[in-house]
Amino acid sequence: MKARLPQGMGGGPQNMNAMIRQAQKMQEDMKKKQAELEEMEFKTTAGGGMVEVTMTGKKELRELVLKPEVVDPEDIEMLQDLIVAAVNEAIRTVEDTSAAEMEKITGSLQVPGMF
């Protein structure tokens, strides 16, 4: 008696070739999306808009804008905290956007080494 596998299970070389083609297409789509994300710019603010940060998808700081009223020589620590908060928020935004876009490509498949 021959054992029969359910449809989609096994299938021999043709099924393996289809899986390989699908994985290659996914890899190409991911590379394309990564390149698109790296070209994007992300703006975030802190302190009610007193500090504005623009960061690229490569997590490179492109621009830092400070409102004049946030610059207080007596309270440099507050300004430092606001800058750190704005930069960290920008990094989180880049990472969250990248992860969401890659998940659209991979579905719920966890790809090692990605984000």
TrEMBL record:
Q: Does the keyword Protein biosynthesis apply?
A: no
Matching Pfam families: YbaB_DNA_bd
Its subcellular locations are:
Cytoplasm, Nucleoid
Keyword annotations:
Coiled coil, Cytoplasm, DNA-binding
Q: Which GO terms describe its cellular component?
A: bacterial nucleoid; cytosol
> InterPro entries annotated for this entry?
YbaB-like_sf (IPR036894), YbaB/EbfC (IPR004401)
Give a yes or no for keyword Magnesium in this entry: no
The subunit structure is: Homodimer.
NCBIfam families attached to this UniProt entry: DNA_YbaB_EbfC
Report the protein name in the record: Nucleoid-associated protein D4A47_03645
Name its species.
Anaerotruncus massiliensis
